[in-house]
Write a structure and sequence with these properties.
- The protein has helices at about 1-20, 35-45, 50-60, 65-70, 75-85, 90-100, 105-125.
- Among the domains are: about 45-100; about 105-135.
- It contains seven helices and no strands.
- It is mainly α.
Length: about 140
Amino acid sequence: MHARLMQAVCAPLAALMFVTAGPLPMAHAAMVPTEQVLRSADQATPVNVATDRERLATFLAREDVRRQMQSLGVDPSEATQRVAAMSDAEVVRVVGKLDQIPAGAGLLGTLIWAVVVIAIILLITDLLGITDVYPIGN
């Protein structure tokens, strides 16, 4: 039974691998002038420092952010003054990192995902007969 189950699982996975890695389009390469790259980069990411400063100030003015700063021992008014003294490049970098921070992500979400992944792995290994964690078919 174990060999039949392995064959039933492996055959579709092998077919899926061949289908996804099979026909890939041909890539074409050419030299691109530096001016064209710089122009496209400027058009793709317009930097408005005044808007970024306002966004950062709004973020620091939020009550939950102020409470978190106080719990970490940071004076919110001093943090606001330091943000006002930042250079334009620093403001752009910080606002860019604000966009990368996952909203609501924390230890609890990570812990839940880890438990779910481990449970799925144990279920699969139990179905394959490698482990005997769940009372399936006993």
